[in-house]
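Thread amino acids onto this structure.
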């Protein structure tokens, strides 16, 4: 059974979490909604009722938004273990990278580096606007620091893609942390696949437990989490260092910049649909 919900972008994360808690083994996030799948071809009345109640409750949080549209349908059986792979393609990110799954060969361009990412239960495959924004701003930072290199901290590393990109861009030392054991396992596999495991310190350490400062700190989280961690993030950026923040919905970008504006100046804002990625430098 496939459930398709067309709704505003700000509701997608909450809906996907709810549907997976109700037994959906997989969801597909789209620009304007979400598709969820249930193994049984006939979703029970209680499931449908709970889904509709939850969708209505989320919709009431933004009364001016269009009411979400739901569609249930039975789909034919497929080899789901492998058929989803056809949706994952090599993707060009910024001026430097091809991001590709391990079963595909990226196009051959000498001027681009390849990052291999195994799509799994950790965020960061290079397809999301916030990941692309962070990678493009990492490119900019590497151009600003030049040949002297830099140290980098990736907060909430997920798949490890930003840590890998930092290593490819000339970081002489990279630290990547995440509090999700599944994400750490996925990231460890991706670091090995990209042959950078020896150059990146990967751990489940809390941000507050890290005592040193870095030339570049990247945090692709959410606006709420960034604001919660703002004090700790501030302390990890070296003098004249850079802070890259993403996972921020456009309407919340102002609150984030105000939280940091006493110590940082905004160098660049990258906007992609409803998302904003910020590049800031300590003043």
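Threaded sequence (283 positions):
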């Amino acid at each position: 059974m496939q459930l398709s919900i067309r709704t505003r972008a700000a509701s997608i994360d909450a809906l996907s979490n709810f549907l997976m808690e109700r037994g959906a083994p997989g969801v597909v996030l789209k620009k304007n909604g979400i598709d969820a799948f249930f193994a049984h071809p006939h979703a029970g009345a209680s499931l449908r009722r709970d889904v509709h109640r939850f969708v209505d409750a989320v919709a009431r949080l933004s009364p001016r938004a269009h009411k979400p549209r739901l569609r249930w349908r039975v789909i034919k059986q497929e080899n789901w273990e492998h058929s989803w792979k056809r949706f994952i393609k090599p993707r060009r990110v910024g001026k430097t990278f091809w991001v590709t799954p391990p079963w595909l060969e990226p196009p051959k361009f000498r001027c681009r580096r390849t990052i291999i990412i195994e799509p799994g239960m950790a965020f960061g495959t290079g397809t999301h606007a916030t990941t692309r924004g962070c990678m493009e701003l990492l490119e900019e930072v590497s151009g600003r620091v030049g040949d002297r290199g830099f140290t980098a901290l990736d907060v909430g590393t997920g798949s490890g893609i930003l840590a890998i990109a930092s290593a490819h861009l000339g970081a002489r030392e990279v630290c990547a942390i995440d509090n999700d054991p599944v994400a750490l396992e996925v990231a460890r596999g991706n670091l090995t696949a990209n042959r950078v495991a020896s150059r990146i310190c990967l751990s489940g350490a809390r941000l507050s437990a890290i005592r040193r400062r870095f030339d570049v700190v990247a945090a692709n989280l959410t606006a709420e989490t960034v604001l919660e961690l703002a004090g700790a993030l501030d302390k990890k950026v070296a003098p004249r260092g850079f802070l890259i923040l993403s996972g921020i919905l456009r309407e919340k970008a102002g609150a984030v910049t105000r939280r940091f504006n006493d110590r940082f100046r905004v160098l660049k804002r990258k906007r992609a649909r409803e998302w904003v990625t910020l590049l800031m430098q300590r003043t």
